[in-house]
TrEMBL record:
Domain (ABC transporter) ranges: 9-232
Alphabetized UniProt keyword annotations: ATP-binding, Nucleotide-binding, Transport
GO molecular function: ATP binding; ATP hydrolysis activity
A Pfam family: ABC_tran
Domain of life: Bacteria
Protein name: ABC-2 type transport system ATP-binding protein
Amino acid sequence: MTDDLSAIATLTAVTKRLGSKPVLEGLDLAIRAGEVTALLGPNGAGKTTCVGLLTGRLAPDAGTARLFGLDPRRPAVRGRMGVMLQTAGLPDVMTVAEMVALQSGYYFHPRPVAKTLALAGLADLGERRCGTLSGGQARRVQYALAICGRPDLLILDEPTAAMDRGSARALWATVREAADAGTGVLLTSHDLAEADSLADRVVVLDRGRIVADDTPGAIRAQVGGSVIRCRTRLALAVVHAMPGVREVEAEGAELRIVTRDAPTTLCRLLDADPAVTDLRVGDATLEDAIAALLAPPHRIAA
Ligand SMILES: Nc1ncnc2c1ncn2[C@@H]1O[C@H](COP(=O)(O)OP(=O)(O)OP(=O)(O)O)[C@@H](O)[C@H]1O
């Protein structure tokens, strides 16, 4: 990873314990200029710990963290980074524009405050006190604080949590624009549609280890085939034995069946349970591919 010349932030062979628990084990991660990297994985996988290491909030127990070639705790490199954390309080009494102006003052070449407010979808909210904002509006202020200094590296930890779809899509557009202009972006998210449409690269973390690192298309292709969803009285094991079936999982009251041969699996399914309902067939999504990589215990895989 350290020989990756386009990398602007790296974790190399990083091991980190928190409390008595190993959280990351020998992890390599590189964030490159002009690329949106989505770091995905279930709760507790270690995503926020990676963010903590790259932003200098945490130090590795073994291995190295580098930001623009230096220790992330060095003030010289911190000014080139904008960070939007999962939780960051805003002072109730300051207005949105005052907060953005204050944060902009920490950077050498900040954007004009009005431009930052517009990019974050806050043009009409500049005079509002932060304490009166909704959850989604407060997230947009945190985004404004992350981008106001024109950072070379933008770290967004679950940026669109609490945002409505329209606000989220507007934020994606500005993130894409920043990446196209050369900013390296690290995004953590539980919204796999967000990762699929925004990321150039998806890194999947499971229990502190990387289980996939590729383009969203290449990760989807690992699953391939089709996904059938339906309600049926058939047992998982019976469906799993049907021709073409690669894996079967209970998703609430439905079954999610990944198959290499949808027509044959469908015929057999309808033969075995003519009362099957809510039947849908579609291509495997990024969510299907990641579910296959993570292998939860309640799924049967071929
Ligand atoms: N200060 C701490 N002390 C002990 N354990 C911790 C501490 N902080 C985090 N952990 C543990 O480290 C593991 C990784 O946590 P982390 O927050 O990095 O996961 P995550 O992938 O960001 O999860 P989420 O999707 O829930 O935000 C979890 O098991 C968590 O309980």
